[in-house]
Every structure is written in C-alpha cells, then in structure tokens.
Design a protein that fits this description.
Blueprint (H helix, E strand, L loop, with lengths): L1 E10 L2 E9 L8 E8 L9 H14 L4 E3 L6 H17 L1 H4 L6 E3 L13 E4 L4 H10 L5 E6 L12 H18 L2 E7 L10 H17 L6 E3 L19 H6 L6 E3 L7 H9 L2 H5 L18 H12 L26 H11 L8 H21 L4 H18 L1
Helix pairs in contact: 1-6, 4-8, 11-12
Length: 398
C-alpha cells in the first residue's frame, strides 16, 4: 500500500487531512481517506502517524507486502507497530491470516517533541466513555466526538442527525465540566467494512489514528476500557485491548486506558448520580436521531436492567422498552465480555424479587457456554463442524 497525495486543507470552520491510499497487491480501487476536524484548533493536524495507524490493519488484512509513505513517523511507533500487528494477527486469524507483516517503508521523524499539556478523551455517549469523562475531566480538557466510527461507520449508513443529537445531548455536561468538544468526521472505518472486523481488529488503531492527528495540540488521550471484569488476559483479546492501546502511543501523544478495575455496574452508578450524564447516555448499536436507544437490542436491555438494579427507572431513556425477565430469551451473547457482564449482574441480584431475572440470566449464560463448547469442538456437533472445515481446507490446498 502506498500513502500518497498527503495534504491538509483549511475549511471555513476547521481543517481536513486527506491522503490517497493505493493498493499494490489487493485488487481494490484507490481509497481517498479523509479526517476532518470542525471547530477551532490552534495547530495543524498531524498526518504521518495518524495515516500509518489508519492503514496498518487494513493493509495487513488485504495481504499488502509493504506500507510506503513519504511522511516521517515516530521512531517509537515504528518500533512498536510490528509487534502490535503480530499480536492482532494472533488474536484474529479469521481476518488477518498468518501471512508476513507488511514492510514499513517509512522514514523516521528526528524531532520527537516534548508532550504538550492538554488532555482529551473520546466520547461516544456510551457507559464507559461517559464514566471516564465524569471521573477524569478537568477544565480545559477536550472531548473527541467522532462521526464515522460507531455513528455512520458503515458505508451508506451516514446519520448526520444522530451525530448532531449526540453533540446536542452532551453539550450541557461538557459545559458544566469546562470541557471543549472537538467534532471529528472521517471515513477511516470504510477502509474495511466487513462485519466484525471493526471491533476485533481495527477500532483501537482507528482511535489511535485520530489521537495522533491531534498530537501537536495534545499530550495525552484517554480511551475508555470496555468495563469487562479483569481476567487472565486483563480483558478479552480484541482491538481495544489495553495492551494494544498503551503501546500505540508515541513520544508526542500518550494513550491511556484508566479504570480497568471498575465494571459496568460501578460505572453506571456514577452516571446515575449525574442527571446531565444520564440524559446523554447512548448505548444502542441501532440508534437513530428519532430513537436514541431502541430499547430492544441486547445492549439496551442489559443497560436498562442494570439501571433498574441501581434503582433508576430506565423507561425515559429507551424507546419502546418492555423490561421483563422473558426479554432475555430473545437475546444471544456474542462476546466473552458481554458474558462476563451478565455474570456480574447475576452476582449483584440478591433477594427473592430478583429470582426470575436470575433464572433467565443463568439460562442465557448456559446457552452461551454451550455455544462456546460447540465452537471449540467439544460437542459432537462441534467435532463434526471442525472435521468438515478440515476437509474443506484440505480440498482447497489440493
């Protein structure tokens, strides 16, 4: 992959960074990547480190043999990136295969400057980013609101009204905390829009790319952890794992993942205590400007149940919510972190009144455990599936 035609341009209300990405091995058309900042920002956007992080995972997934750029990058980032790509490949062979890593044909930057003082943290409206904002924000900090990641991240699914609603709902809380919002627009996620690729492989690198684009004006960027209870690997291996995010920093900007020790229950408790934060809560993967939280998906039901457990009526926050134990029967767990969060809920439901919920959560976790045994080939059906995949692989090689 070649990174070409890198340029930054002023806009009437901000600035935009652009680059042309040319695939060399993959049969993909050239991609016009942009990252746009709306609002005042005292310095220019940093191109080199941001573009490298934006391209690294998609280039690896596409089988590109090199990443070439004329823009000099952080020496520390160039040292750390190959190890992080290999770790991501080990965690995600489905998407990233086992091929050789792309050669980084990129000059090193020799003027590693001292970190600047201002701090920032990403804000999506979710439980984890709101909790991080409440706990760590200081007057003069920045909040990074991105249009093109979870909002408008899929090609053809742009929802500017939803992003505007996120900005509107979060504005009172940011004003109270003395935090300035930076509105960022990008098509970075469209580099590889396959289902699952974003969370498993790409999201952490994309967040780091945005942080590095602002490195001339920021010294530290905080990224919220998932709220998953800590396990042997700290958290489930995916692109937002704290090990990856810590290592994706550089001499110019450090990336930090605070509050690993706190689960979703404790985080929501902090949000309930601040009405402005609660009013801006957005957890739904299917949200729109008309229905900020749909009230029916797994995340909405789990969050509403947690709020009810904390004594907070969830109905005003969720459209069409019908919260009852049987609601969990139509839900499937799709990630180890989600299973751990239900287990945390289960351990915090004392008394007879919660028994129907405990029964449904236990059944949900049993279904999840059975599915994992099947995927691991530890059931008869799972062993047959593994044999079938092996036969298919052998036929392909022959």
């Amino acid at each position: 992959m070649r990174i070409e035609a890198i340029h930054s341009e002023p806009l009437p209300d901000g600035q935009r960074l652009r680059a042309q990405l040319v695939w060399e091995q993959a049969a993909n058309t050239p991609f016009e990547l942009y990252l746009q900042l709306n609002g005042p920002w005292p310095v220019g956007l940093c191109a080199a480190d941001a573009l490298l992080l934006a391209c690294a995972i998609p280039a690896l997934a596409a089988g590109e043999q090199r990443i070439h750029s004329p823009a000099a990058c952080s020496p520390l980032l160039l040292i750390m990136l190959p190890g992080l790509l290999r770790l991501s490949q080990y965690w995600n062979p489905r998407y990233l295969g086992s091929q050789a890593l792309p050669l980084l044909q990129i000059p090193q930057r020799s003027d590693a400057s001292q970190r600047a003082a201002p701090r920032a943290r990403f804000l999506s409206g979710g439980v984890d980013s709101l909790h991080l904002l409440l706990c760590n924000a200081q007057p003069g900090d920045y909040a990074l609101l991105v249009n093109g990641f979870d909002i408008g991240g899929q090609p053809g699914a742009a929802d500017p009204a939803l992003f505007a609603e996120l900005c509107r709902r979060s504005a009172p809380l940011l004003a109270k905390l003395g935090v300035q919002a930076l509105h960022i627009h990008t098509n970075l996620r469209h580099l590889d829009a396959r289902a699952g690729f974003w969370g498993d492989c790409f999201a952490g690198f994309a967040l780091a790319a945005v942080a590095h684009s602002l490195a001339q004006g920021l010294g530290q960027v905080e990224i919220a952890s998932s709220g998953e209870p800590i396990g042997p690997l700290v958290q489930s291996p995916d692109s937002l794992h704290p090990y990856l995010l810590y290592a994706l920093g550089s001499e110019r900007v450090g990336l930090h993942v605070p509050h690993l020790q706190l689960g979703r229950l404790d985080r929501l408790r902090s949000i309930v205590a601040e009405p402005m934060a609660l009013a801006s809560l957005r957890v739904c993967n299917f949200s729109s400007s008309a229905h900020y939280n749909c009230g029916r998906c797994e995340k909405c039901v789990r969050t509403a149940l947690t709020l009810q457990l904390l004594g907070q009526d969830p109905a005003p926050l969720f459209a069409g919510l019908r919260l009852e134990p049987r609601s969990l029967r139509d839900i499937a767990i799709d990630h180890p972190a989600v299973a751990a969060m239900y287990a945390e809920l289960l351990s915090n439901m004392p008394g007879a009144s919660w028994q129907p919920w405990r029964n449904e959560i236990e059944a949900l976790l049993t279904r999840w455990a059975k599915q994992q045994r099947w995927l691991q080939g530890r059931t008869l059906g799972g062993r047959w599936r593994a044999l079938h995949q092996r036969w298919q692989s052998a036929g392909t090689r022959s």
